[in-house]
Structures are given as C-alpha cells and as structure tokens.
Sporulation initiation inhibitor protein Soj (Lacrimispora saccharolytica), 257 residues
Amino acid sequence: MSTVIAITNQKGGVGKTTTSCSLACGLAMNHKRVLAVDLDPQGNLGFSLGLEIESCATIYEVFKGTATLQEAIRSSKYCDVISSNILLSSAELEFTGKQRECMLKNILSTVAGYYDYIIIDTPPALNILTVNAYAAANFLIIPMVPEILSLLGVSQIKDTINTVRSSVNPDLVVLGILLNKYNARTLLSREVKEMAQNIAAQIGTTVFNTHIRSSVSVAEAPAQGESLLDYAPRSNPAIDYKALVAEVLERIKLRKI
C-alpha cells in the first residue's frame, strides 16, 4: 500500500510546493515509486515538475468524473504527477455530496498498490480540498517560516486535524513541523523555533531536526521546470531537502515498527 503524505499550512508563502516537489523528487531519487498530486488551484506543483499543465486532464476533471485517474496521471522527469488548475477553486461550492470529504481518498485507493509514496500539495486555506488531503493522508508535514503569522497558521490547523481524526481518518499522524527559510543566526528564527516546538507538542509531534535554509535557487528552479535537487544540488536548501527526505523515511519507518 502507498504511504500518503500531505504537505499543509493554511498560510501562503511557507514553501509547501517547494517542499512537495523536493520530497517527491528526493523519494524518487531513493528509488521509490512516487505520485505527486496537486490540490492547489494555483497549479504550481505540476509546473515545478516540468509539466505543460494547460494541456492535460487535472484532478478537477477526475473529481467531476469527466476524466479517469489514468488519464490525469502524467509522467515527469522525476515521478508521476496529477496536476491542477484554477477550475479547482470552485470545489467548495461545486462538490456537495455526502462523501465529498473522501473524494480524493477513494480516487487514490485505486492506485494505492502501485506507488510507494503519494505526495499531496495543498492550498493555502482550510477548505474542502484541505480536508480531502487530510482524509486521504497517513501523514502530514507542516512547513512554516520563522514568522509569527506563519506560526498562527500552524496553530489553527489543530482544529481541522482533530475534526478529520474524529470523522473520516482516525489514524492521521502529524509527522513533523518543518522550518523553512531558516537562519539560525537570527533571534526571530530561534524564538519561532521554540514556539513551534510548543505547538508541535500540542498536536502530538515534533519539529524536524532538518531545517531548510534560503537560497535564490529555490525561486530559479521552477522557472527551468527542474527540481531544486537537480537544478542546484550543491545549494544549501538542496542539501537540506536531501537530509529531510532521509529524516522523513526514518520517521515513517519508526512509526511502522
């Protein structure tokens, strides 16, 4: 069965897509079979993985039933991808059936035996798309940047996690909080890290030992349709993301023992 990991934070600009892309590519480089799913209507994950996102069926068409999952899955240089586009932003109003929280879970169950890992990039909101990701996931990774507003976004996720656990996914586990754009030399980064550790304890998890440092290569890589791990493999964030992949694999292994 696939291990499903959702990357989530209702705050934008915290590195969800970069983390989703780097994690998917890093797992693929570790010889894992990976499917990346873009649940963000901005469609940045597919673009970052080098897809022509305007010319293929998306997760929106799969939800609508106008395309099959197999028609929506595209191969990239790194892994298989299901892309998204702005049409998905209507999901809150358009999908109103009784099982709407489990649409993604039911869809992904048909390929659960084929992929080792399924990585889900979520929108910067707590809406029906986010709930679908939580319902389908085994694990959540919560990226945040060393800013107070980002910390508030993490704190507000707690209620959604508890709601999903009490309804459609009692086994949902928060694998860890990931500090992004981290600079250990600044007082703010150190203070936010300490507060993040307190919030992590409240939701039954910890802050990852790996912190992701900043670099201009993070912004440059998507423009080239390449993974950061390929585009700038010696850059600080690429080195950090490779370490994160190893830490994620180790944490999941310990959870399964």
Observations:
- The mean pLDDT is 91.
- The first strand starts at residue 3 and ends at 7.
- Residues 236-256 form the longest helix (21 residues).
- The beta strands are 3-7, 34-38, 73-75, 80-82, 117-121, 139-144, 173-179.
